Amino acid sequence: MTDITRSLLLTDLYQLTMLQAYWQHRMNEVAVFELFVRKLPPGRRFMVAAGLDSALDLIENARLDSAELAWVDGCGRFAAGFAEWLGNLRFTGDLWAIPEGTVFFPAEPILRVVAPIAEAQWLETRLLNLVHLQTLIATKAAHCVLAADGRDLIDFGLRRAHGAEAGLLAARSAWLSGFAGTATALAGLRFGIPVFGTMAHSFVQAHDSEAAAFKAFAESFPDNAVLLIDTYDTVAAAHTVAHIAPELAARGIHVKGVRLDSGDLDALSREVRSVLDGAGLTDAIIFASGNLDEQIVHELVAARAPIDSYGIGTSLTTSSDAPALDAVYKLQEYAGLARRKRSAGKATWPGRKQVWRFTGEQGNFGHDVVALESEGYEGTPLLNEVMHRGARLGAVVELADSRRLCADQLAHLPPALRASPTGVSATAYPVNISARVQALADEVDRRTAGDPSSGTTGSG
Amino acid sequence: MTDITRSLLLTDLYQLTMLQAYWQHRMNEVAVFELFVRKLPPGRRFMVAAGLDSALDLIENARLDSAELAWVDGCGRFAAGFAEWLGNLRFTGDLWAIPEGTVFFPAEPILRVVAPIAEAQWLETRLLNLVHLQTLIATKAAHCVLAADGRDLIDFGLRRAHGAEAGLLAARSAWLSGFAGTATALAGLRFGIPVFGTMAHSFVQAHDSEAAAFKAFAESFPDNAVLLIDTYDTVAAAHTVAHIAPELAARGIHVKGVRLDSGDLDALSREVRSVLDGAGLTDAIIFASGNLDEQIVHELVAARAPIDSYGIGTSLTTSSDAPALDAVYKLQEYAGLARRKRSAGKATWPGRKQVWRFTGEQGNFGHDVVALESEGYEGTPLLNEVMHRGARLGAVVELADSRRLCADQLAHLPPALRASPTGVSATAYPVNISARVQALADEVDRRTAGDPSSGTTGSG
């Protein structure tokens, strides 16, 4: 069977039903869809765009295999010939995108797809699925990185990430936003991300004593052993480490550090530091984990707990306090005419848009303007064309470069957005909708209001 | 490249480091690991076990491919020969499991793995990743099903599920727990789940009028068209449907129903029902969607809103109010000796355990007992052996049968657990830990307390 991550049948059935209707009614004019997030979830002050690389890969390579086309053909819903037409559908349009690692805000399009309507519609579900996930995790990770104020963070969350792809892409998204690495081995192979690992409680439990477990592990990893010391009693285990260290050192084995995974991490890290220092193990690092999030890390950092690195698991890989963004993919133009929906609480801004960023105080980001593509501004445009007539433009962007871009972006956040993990700042970042976008919305509303047979009178 | 869903390199690095230590120190005695959930998250009254089928598939088929083994060999962390040994590792142990669709509670093992320690340790990360996700979603879905009180629920959440596998397995997990189907087309092919779909706002917006959009869609799906009516004005669009229905009927086209996706669903559904009924469209169903969850569905059902079916999206597929369960995989026995950790707030019950369920009032579930495997009780044992010495036992369980089992389980919940979606009932379901399990914990504590060189004195 085809890898599910590369199947375009991984979509909502309604994309297929709409495509059949477009096909049967010969609707093949150019459509413009934009992907954006409606609002910030609680606990987030900004977002970090991620997932563009997956999106490009999807558009270039995802296909229906023969079994999937046979299912479409035989499921009793679709007209004769539709599956064959679908099997030959290829993306021939343009893609505009905000680079991965860029900070962005609600109402700002991060992707714009310009293509014959069936090709653009068809992408909706999986494009959202990929970009939403990665933007969600990159955003969470960036908030953690700011809270850690320079301490190393490691992604520990594969086991409770939502499936294989979520775990693997969470590792990538966290690295993009400034994590020092991940525990997920496959992310090392696939993305070249530094991989970290210590030991589990089961390793300690399987030995007759903690001393025996620690010695065995250190013998196997003489330069790199981080020993987990909370299985029974954290401070007692720290003394055990101190006790066995000289014997190990005599054999050329250097204990790299210890990991705390439960209890009062502030108090325990101080006691453990003192035990290790008292034994001359001043180089041994203290690693902390166990249901951590950016709030807890911020508090430990603020309290100056002697913790060198943090492993963040479930709260990162599920973005547990806000496990979804209100990300949508909306038709903004069709056949040269601007379009919008007016659904209660879900109205959209019509037309092909660009996001302009303006510098404010001390070189930081000052404000953004969402304008029509055709408007000219002095700021920096965030959306670039990355695919033209179905072909990628420019060289592949290296993940390390995206990571540097993200670090630079975080360094230019206004102080109010950079500072506290304790919630959204009172004054949110200003994003202005241009007067021409607003006027276009009014125009579309006049065109589509009232009589359902009102037809098309506006301009595109 | 190998399908990531079938790679055992999708694991935490520490599994590899521990495996090398076990290999180098020739630790290959039988280990017993149990997978369980420590506590119920807020908003859940019980859990539904899911993911066993994936677990069996993982154990039987997941492998490292040559590129992955080359990465292990060349990453500079592991000893010569380790990658080769790892590549030949196969599961030769036993697996015990609670059947998919079974209701269970905290502290109750739902999987027990009995195998040489490396084989059992190796599975931890991905086994948790798969079983956690599916149990999480099946649990959320079951709470939705109870809230809907007989109305059909459809999974609409692929786009904001966390990646491909999360979306596909959420469809399966929701169906297992009693959803009527999913919008995810691939779930139809892979699992035979009924697939549903309507149309998106973009379809309406791409047409010059709602009337034109509705007609085009109905022509393409003459028996099966559910028309989305909230793009501009829900009640006006209902009148449009009423207006075009006779003309369509004259051509043999039957409007199946309408979908509301925003606004006050209670008030709008009544207005729309009245418009449709006034036009003789009494058979047309009303479908509702738009950021729904079990609480909103419960309120709409309680208010007797005339809504026939509900689409539940993000809140289902991300389990948004509780996106993770405190699921763990813990060593309970090694080399014939019971084991436990005592970490603060994370202590485990040692030994090989069985869960016994006892009937209470009116044939409903009364209470459970978690006991040692060797204890005999009169209740129903929930864990069955499903794999012996690496080979599956019995026939493959059909998903439809698991779905019937789940429905039967939900029907036997005590009324307090079945009733309200407004939070956990005051008296939680009683799960008793047997006296022998508690005595064994004390025994293990005595053995592992104090001096790290205390050695082994307990019995297994």
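Chain B touches chain A through 122 residues (CB under 8 Å).
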